[in-house]
Specification:
GMP Synthetase, Chain A, domain 3; single chain; alpha/beta; 29% helix; globular; 449 residues; Rossmann fold
Length: 449
């Protein structure tokens, strides 16, 4: 029997809703809470941040009478951080406990800085504590393959959340040596792993990872990036475990939503964040079930409130109720990022998620890097660097065949908009990431060398 997501009881307690409220009455009470918090956030941000004082200066008819009124409010984007991130600061700098610096995805590589107060970080620890209770039980052991050496890093926050569950935790850090990581996991006797999709896949395909076998690792949580379904299936086959996905980004305070035992979409952190899905081009709100761009508004953050922040992630709000029995909204699995799409023709767009679905099906392929350039003749050139498993790797012909199976690539080659893709196997290994930056198609003006 599938257990109901623990986030429902947690949100009920956090929002202080009557325990007797059920069904539509519960959802209505949650919306009332969220509307109140949205209005409080708008007022707080206008009074305390230079950015929103200017950005929302012309906003009239406040407070909002309905959550649909959010559609009147302009979006906040990643580029807004670049000029002067201090304009988003709502408290004194002395009250900031954690500053995270990220590189934007633009060609200038400008940095954006995010600020969190101690109270903001505590909200994340609380979410991790309750969200992880689906995957691991008191007395068990977990290994975290995420950055954790610095105080208040994502691995450290997760460690603190797991400690509240009496779960013994090893914060190993991002994987650079899959064999060593697998040996550490086996030695520690881990029941649960948390890590970056391609890095956990590399661990599973290492000799020591295969030797772990089935029955030891009970659950895996994949986070920080788009999760190809084929990676989840491979981990299930190798270790006989359940594979969950988590949705979050640094701008959210690291945590946004997590799957329940149904493994069918994220239950969202609705006490702290309000989510929307909008049309990427028009900005209009999408109906439930329609795919668009994820947008969120912070409801409880003090250090750096964000209002209608465009994430760039592709997803949808699922219209049907969850098999676990919860009536909370669910977001379907993120399908990649809008910025990672390359238009090859009027009706042909290539996305990293399309290539992921094709390439990660290949036995022994652990990771790859896609580089797109455009030659002097106007044709696109796609080059793939591949890293294969130490116990077996696909051939270049297998990689090319998988790419050729994608309609976008096949049709673009047929009409000469795209040259035949090229493949190179990398002896260096993976393109290691801490999870702060997400995988994407690298677009260059010159052909890849």
């Amino acid at each position: 029997m599938i257990g109901i997501t623990p986030l429902e009881a947690w949100i009920r307690e956090r929002v202080r809703l009557d325990s007797e409220l059920t069904g539509s009455a519960f959802l209505e009470a949650l919306k009332v809470y969220q509307l109140q918090r949205v209005n409080e956030t708008i007022d707080y941000a206008r009074r305390n941040t230079a950015f929103y004082r200017h950005h929302l200066a012309s906003l009239q008819d406040l407070p909002l009478s309905d959550l649909s009124g959010l559609a009147r409010i302009p979006f906040t984007t990643s580029s807004d951080f670049a000029d002067n991130p201090l304009r988003f600061l709502a408290v004194r700098q002395d009250d900031i406990a954690k500053i995270v610096t990220l590189r934007t995805s633009g060609s200038t590589g400008e940095a954006k800085r995010l600020f969190f107060s101690e109270a903001d970080l505590e909200l994340t620890v609380d979410f991790f504590h309750h969200g992880m209770s689906t995957l691991v039980q008191p007395g068990q052991r977990a290994v975290v393959l995420l950055p954790g050496e610095k105080p208040d890093s994502v691995g450290d926050l997760l460690l603190r959340g797991l400690q509240r569950m009496d779960v013994q935790t090893l914060v190993y850090g991002p994987v650079t040596d899959p064999l060593h990581a697998a040996e550490a996991i086996a030695s520690f006797g881990a029941h649960c792993l948390v890590g970056i999709p391609t890095q956990v896949l590399a661990v599973a395909h290492s000799r020591a990872g295969v030797a772990i076998g089935k029955g030891s690792i009970e659950s895996v949580l994949l986070s920080t990036d788009y999760v190809p379904q084929t990676i989840s299936q491979t981990l299930e086959e190798v270790w006989g475990c359940r594979v969950f996905t988590h949705y979050g980004m640094t701008e959210m305070g690291f945590g946004g939503g997590v799957e329940c035992e149904a493994l069918d979409g994220y239950h969202l952190r609705e006490g702290d964040l309000y989510f929307e899905v909008v049309d990427h081009e028009t900005g209009e709100t999408c109906s439930d079930g329609e795919t668009g761009e994820v947008v969120f508004t912070t409801l409880t953050r003090k250090g750096m409130p964000l209002i209608r922040y465009k994430t760039g992630d592709i997803a949808r709000i699922m219209p049907q109720s969850c098999p676990c029995g919860s009536i909370l909204r669910r977001m379907g699995r993120v399908r990649g990022r809008w910025e990672g799409a390359v238009r090859l023709g009027p009706d042909r767009v290539l996305t990293l998620s399309d290539m992921d679905d094709a390439l990660f099906r290949l036995q022994g392929l652990l990771d790859y890097r896609a580089t797109m350039s455009k030659g002097g003749d106007g044709r696109f050139r796609l080059h793939i660097d591949v890293h294969g498993s130490e116990v077996g790797s696909p051939t270049d012909s297998e990689v090319l065949k998988a790419l050729g199976g994608l309609d976008t690539i096949r049709k673009s080659v047929a009409v000469s908009d795209l040259e035949a893709p090229t493949v190179r196997f990398s002896a260096e290994g993976r393109w290691t990431t801490t999870g702060a930056s997400k995988r994407k198609i690298i677009v260059k003006s010159d052909p890849p060398g």
